[in-house]
Amino acid sequence: DDQEAGAFYSIVCRENAGGPWPVFEDAKLDYERNVDDGNELLGWGVFWSTSPCYFWGDVPELVPVIPDHNFDTKMLLIHEEFDAATPFSGALATREIFRQSVLVGLPGGVAHAESLLDIKPCLDRIIAEYLDTGVLPNRTATRNAADVECPPYPFPDPSATDTNTARFLFGDGEGDDDIMMVELKEELRRILNGNPLRHH
Predict the structure, then answer these.
(1) Tell me: the pLDDT tens digits for 21-52?
(2) If pLDDT is split at 50, 70 and 90, which confidence band does 65 have?
(3) In this structure, is the dihedral angle defined by the CA atoms of residues 175, 177, 180 and 181, taken in order, positive or negative?
(4) What φ, ψ does residue 173 adopt, rounded to 5°?
(5) Where is the Peptidase S33 tripeptidyl aminopeptidase-like C-terminal domain (predicted)?
(6) Which DSSP string do the residues of 115-151 spell out, in sequence order?
(7) Which residues, listed in sequence order, are joined to residue 71 by a DSSP beta bridge?
(8) What confidence category does residue 165 fall into, taking pLDDT thresholds of 50, 70 and 90?
(9) In sequence order, which ranges of the chain are alpha helices (DSSP H)?
């Protein structure tokens, strides 16, 4: 966990084209105003998840420009159109840099490309087949567009009683990690033994 956090914050806290992070107390007051205005996500989650950056020792740097190379790494890229954390333009730029990669786009999607939760069968089948065989879907010649499109998960219904998604995301008690890994493996088997891969 420490290594994962260190890698995450070394990017978030250092690659900041906007200059140095503001003074902690000033930022805290700004986010408190967001909470008072009813924007709890901006006022709580964003502030505390980036709070180490206010005390980061290194000065933020501009993101380095990657030269125009034709990287031959094959990758499966997945991105939802309206992911607020990472703009879709970044996925398109990554696709152009890694020219043997394949981008699966989810038009209208607002999540952070969650998958293998039994809620996006089109996307889950593509991922499962790639993990099983290493074979990517076909890459198109079209620039600035996804190679394959899958429907996103619809907006959640607050009145729904189904807790499967929450259980997959957050676990359900003692031994959560083991339970989730068993369920994930079972889910992959179900996908691979189900309908053949279809591109929509």
Answers:
(1) 777 788 778 778 877 777 666 666 667 777 88
(2) low
(3) negative
(4) 125, -150
(5) 44-140
(6) -SSSS-HHHHHHHHHHHHH-PPPPPPS-SSS-SEE-P
(7) 98
(8) very low
(9) 2-12, 24-36, 40, 46-49, 88-97, 121-133, 164-170, 176-192
Chain centre distance of CA 184:
18
Partner residues linked to 149 by β-bridges: 105
> In Å, how far are 31, 88, 116, 122, 123 from 111, measured between CA atoms?
23, 12, 14, 16, 13
The whole-model pTM stands at 0.61
What are the phi and psi torsion angles at 25 (to 5°)?
-65, -35
Q: Provide the Cα torsion 185, 186, 188, 189; round to 10°.
A: 120
Round to whole Å and give the CA distance between 199 and 135. 14
Q: Name residues whose C-beta falls within 8 Å of residue 9's C-beta, 6 or more positions apart in sequence.
A: 52, 53, 56
With tokens 């990287």, the residue in question is 71
At 98-107, the pLDDT tens digits run 889 999 999 9
Sheet containing strand 148-149, edge to edge, reads 76-80, 102-106, 148-149
State the angle between helix axes of 121-133 and 176-192 in degrees (0 to 180), rounded to the nearest 10.
90
Closest CA to 127 of 78, 194, 183, 73: 78
